[in-house]
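Thread: Newbie trying to understand structure tokens

Hi all, I'm a second-year student working on a class project, and my supervisor (Dr. K.) asked me to get a predicted structure for one chain before our next meeting. I've only ever worked with sequences, so writing a 3D structure as a token string is new to me. If someone could post the tokens and maybe explain what I'm looking at, I'd be very grateful. Here's the chain:
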Amino acid sequence: MIRKFCLAALVLATAACGGGPPELGQAPNVAYVQADAMPAPVNGGEGYVYALGPMDKISVEIVGLPDMRRDITVDGQGFVSIPIAGAVSAAGLTPTELAGVIEERLRARYVRDPQALVNLVEGNSNVVTLEGQVRQPGLYPLRSETTLSQAIATAGGEDDLAKISIIILQRQVDGQEYIGLYDLQAIRYGNYADPIVYPGDTIVVDESRSRRTLDTFQGITNLLTTPLIILSRQL
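---
Reply by user tm_fold:
Sure, no problem. This is what the structure looks like when written as tokens:
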């Protein structure tokens, strides 16, 4: 849930938007961030890469050893069990990286020139949360690069009562909380870029409590031309 002090700061910041970054002197625990600078997660800066996690389903094949082909589910601790190679930690690795680890294990067990192939069959660990007035709120896996509007569409789109002029995107990066306010209609009109979403993000589409808080203030009028990004400092 969005913290109330963050919401108040967001409103103050938007009201201050005129010709440059708003002043947030009244709120020392928040800071304005350049509008196009919603940071990617530390491991997401070079484009979207799927890192394996618990409950992901993968296929593993050792070239030349057809009997070793397996469809495997990563367990709750992030491990997979591979014949000959044994238990291998898969959490945080891409399928290609996991294949390399399996090959190293097989070499250590005297398999000559092993070539492992690992493919994602069903991604369940890299999820984004959609809340509020979407048709199907819940957790949705991200299997490839996905934008904010695409993520909302995955949840069936906004419902008939949604106020899409205020879309809230929350993200944790390196222990800090970033909050972005976007106008979905402005994105659809091409007024500004459709931001990429990442695993762990929370998207709130006109969530009722946030709307009631926001609507008590004035000045949220500039999201048609630029998004608003706020960094919440933990004091």
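A couple of things are worth pointing out once you decode it. Residues 57-122 form a domain with the wza like fold fold (CATH 3.30.1950.10). The chain is about 20% helix and 30% strand. Feel free to ask follow-ups in this thread.
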